[in-house]
Amino acid sequence: MEGHVPGVGRVLVLVLCIAGIWSAYITQGVLQETVSTKRFGPDGKRFEHLSFLNLAQNVVCLFWSFIMIKLWSRSSAGHAPWWSYWSAGITNTIGPAMGIEALKYISYPAQVLAKSSKMIPVMLMGTLVYGIKYTFPEYVCTLLVAGGVSAFALLKTSSKTISKLARPNAPLGYGLCFLNLAFDGFTNATQDSLTARYPKTSAWDIMLGMNLWGTIYNMVYMFGWPHGSGYEAIRFCKQHPEAAWDIFVYCLCGAVGQNFIFLTISRFGSLANTTITTTRKFVSIVVSSLLSGNPLSKKQWGSVFMVFSGLSYQIYLKWRKLQRLQRKKPM
């Protein structure tokens, strides 16, 4: 698909993808932090039901993907059936919920760093369970990321940042983030399995199936009994329309961001997407530090650079591997 957009047009599409992913997810990150830390209204109440963000995101993305399929999809033949997403839907519901809940216990920059260390559980599982042997540079990447995240976690957080958290508890917050990564790993593996079995399955099909089951599970969890947390969340949004608006824009940003991610992968490949999303995470930390009042010490910034040095090196290794594979292809 890379030959579809020649010359200047291709560069303009890439710039559009970068701008779309950065603006959507940086805005979403700011809103996520706002909803999780802000005190709303004259009564100064916090929005405690952060899992409701996942339900709202599921509903918006469900409708968004349905509209996209109706507009662009020509046939449903050969696509993965909707019921086949049920198991991935469970982990895709629990994992992100843990990631969002972590914001009650650790700062947004700490959460972003922790969730950037996905390679650590992947390599541990690969080595211990499947006996996969990794190269020395891959271990260097992992050590840089693991060392940076560990150093950031052990360094003292500013009192201003701690005061904004609902219930400061670093071990619990980081634990939730790493459980989020573990569940994400299962979700990604299941999605890969489905696309292998049903090659005609599009990104929109996956988005629809995952969000359909996510909506079902979250609705049962939040509204399945008389005193479910969903009722409290709705009541809070009615009393504080500002929170409701923040949640709606948060969900919209997620749906728009997915659009640009799919466009990037289809036009430029997964490596370009990884590069854009990784740099976006770094910018999100900078924005959080400058705009949201989460000051980082020099040592914490050193930890941030350590993590993103490891991630950047990993991207370079992937690029070099891709170049070697392309040179081996017959002309």
Overall description:
This protein is mainly α and 331 residues long. The protein has a domain at 52-107 and 157-239. The protein has helices spanning 7-37, 51-72, 86-101, 108-115, 119-128, 136-154, 159-164, 170-197, 203-223, 229-239, 241-268, 270-291, 298-328; strands at 39-40, 45-46. Strands 1-2 form a two-stranded antiparallel sheet. A hairpin with a 4-residue loop joins strand 1 and strand 2 (45-46). Helix 4 (108-115) crosses helix 8 (170-197). It holds the Pfam family UAA. It comes from Nelumbo nucifera. Belongs to the nucleotide-sugar transporter family. UDP-galactose:UMP antiporter (TC 2.A.7.11) subfamily.
Biggest β-sheet, characterized?
2 strands, antiparallel
If you average the pLDDT, what whole number results? 86
Total beta-strand segments: 2
Strand content: under 5%
Helical content class: over 70%
Q: Residue ranges: pLDDT <50 for 5 or more in a row?
A: 1-5
Number of helical segments with 4 or more residues:
13
Strand order of the largest sheet: 1-2
Nearest-angstrom radius of gyration? Answer: 20 Å
Distance between the termini: 18 Å
Structural class determined from secondary elements: mainly alpha
* Helix/strand order, N-terminal first: HEEHHHHHHHHHHHH
